[in-house]
Design a protein that fits this description.
single chain; mainly alpha; 14 helices; 0% strand; globular; disordered N terminus
Length: 275
């Protein structure tokens, strides 16, 4: 990923985690992160990022040397740095939260199955044809009034998934522009960048709504109705809401920092082509 954690926070975290009274809390967090398979999530996010960077290069600098750009983005999407950042920010976001109920669920057979299904669905969505087919299936089941669609809509509403995703994408797009501007590729004011980003909101919302519904259907359709309901109940709990907030805060900041670095990298490549 490339972002560097703040030295002051890193020192504070090291001091806190070194204290015996905090060791149990850190063990609980480590258990949760393992159960959520953060490492596997980061690997998939890297593949998504590389695909995004490739499409960006084709659009903005079609004459770039593929091998040089590939090497650049692989340095940006560094899984070790990405994972470290996620773990650090999850620790911040879940500080003071009782992790026992979350660990009880995610270390259970159902919890492990849910995480596996979510990861498998996200990996499958790297193929645009799979995503398109899933969206068509979601629309079909929605017209038929299927229970699984009602349950998915409940999950989306309870955790405000559409709004979180829309704001996350718009903020990432803004950071891409800032990276381009700071890198000298564009002479855009902050006002111009904000206007451009906000003009994308409607399209981003439509895409996010379609993607999330199709993704959750792909992930949870193999589950029994009562198992999906149990998952709904988890996210409705105070601990589930705290986890939802921590996850979005963590990954949104990571996407923003990655987008800024990609923007700077594009600017550098564009400038080198001009020389």
């Amino acid at each position: 990923m490339g972002p560097i954690r703040a030295a002051a926070w890193a020192l504070a975290a090291a001091a806190i985690w070194a204290m015996p009274a905090q060791s149990e809390g850190r063990a609980e967090l480590d258990t949760l992160l393992r159960a959520l398979r953060v490492g596997d999530t980061v690997e998939i996010m890297r593949e998504e990022g590389l695909a995004y960077a490739d499409s960006l290069a084709q659009e903005m600098m079609p004459d770039a040397v593929p091998s040089g750009w590939q090497a650049t983005v692989e340095r940006i999407y560094d899984t070790g740095k990405m994972r470290n950042l996620v773990e650090e920010r999850m620790a911040q976001g879940l500080d003071g939260v009782d992790l026992a109920p979350l660990n009880a669920f995610f270390t259970s057979d159902l919890g492990a199955e849910v995480v596996e299904l979510e990861l498998s669905a996200r990996e499958a969505f790297l193929d645009p044809e799979v995503e398109e087919a899933a969206q068509e299936q979601y629309e079909k089941l929605d017209r038929e009034g299927a229970l699984i669609v009602d349950q998915i809509d409940t999950l989306i509403a309870d955790s405000d998934l559409i709004e979180h995703n829309v704001m996350g994408i718009l903020n990432s797009n803004l950071m891409l522009y800032r990276g381009l501007a700071d890198g000298g590729a564009y002479d855009l004011s902050e006002e111009d960048m904000l206007l451009d980003v906000w003009s994308q909101e409607e399209g981003v919302r439509e895409d996010s709504t379609a993607w999330i519904g199709a993704y959750l259907l792909t992930a949870y359709q193999p589950l029994e109705d009562d198992e999906v309901q149990e998952y709904i109940d988890l996210w409705r709990s105070d601990e589930g809401q705290a986890l939802n907030t921590a996850l979005f805060s963590t990954f949104d900041r990571m996407y923003e920092e990655l987008s800024y670095l990609v923007g700077q990298a594009v600017a550098q490549h564009l400038r080198s082509q001009e020389l």
